[in-house]
Write a structure and sequence with these properties.
By secondary structure, the chain is mainly beta. The protein has one helix and ten strands. It has one domain: Immunoglobulin-like (Sandwich), CATH 2.60.40.740. Strands 2, 4, 6, 8, 9 and 10 form a six-stranded mixed sheet that branches. Strands 1-3-7-5 form a four-stranded antiparallel sheet, with no helix packed on it.
Length: 152
């Protein structure tokens, strides 16, 4: 009996460890097309997990000439860049919400913006282990107006 119990306990411990730290992240946009006149769009960053991590951080690399307007949503990170920031935006939670963290960023983009992407990376620390999640980038399509060309 003792010899059967040991492999069973080990299997349960491995399965438990694998599922306890299940996590996923996604970045989405409220549009897939950029207006030729320029404008703003909303990106939603969401992370889900079975066990609340000890630490959670996001970085979102914006295209050149794009600017952060504001950060909103149900779980606004305590550490966030100021409005007007450009380039790679970094966010961190000092208190991680239970089971899911979600926030939105409003960004502005210039007129005649060509096709572009916002590229996310997420760092999650759970149980002393640091994991990097790489959600799919948000692909945005520039529109060409007759007589104008979008920048590529």
């Amino acid at each position: 009996m003792k010899s059967l119990l040991r492999p069973l306990v080990a299997s349960l411990a491995i399965l438990s460890a694998a599922t306890a730290f299940a996590q996923s992240a996604a970045l989405s946009s409220d549009t897939s097309t950029l207006a030729p006149s320029g404008g703003t769009l909303v990106l939603t960053a969401a992370t889900t997990y079975d066990t609340a991590p000890g630490a959670l951080g996001w970085s979102i690399a914006l295209p050149a000439d794009w600017t952060l307007v504001s950060v909103n949503g149900p779980h606004v990170p305590a550490i966030a860049p100021d409005a007007g920031s450009t380039g790679t935006l970094e966010f961190a939670f000092t208190q991680v919400p239970a089971s899911r963290a979600e926030f939105t960023i409003h960004v502005s983009y210039p007129a005649n913006a060509g096709s572009a992407q916002a590229t996310p990376k997420v760092l999650v620390r759970t149980g002393g282990k640091l994991t990097t999640l790489t959600p799919a980038p948000v692909e945005l399509r520039g529109v060409t107006v007759t007589g104008q060309k979008s920048r590529h």
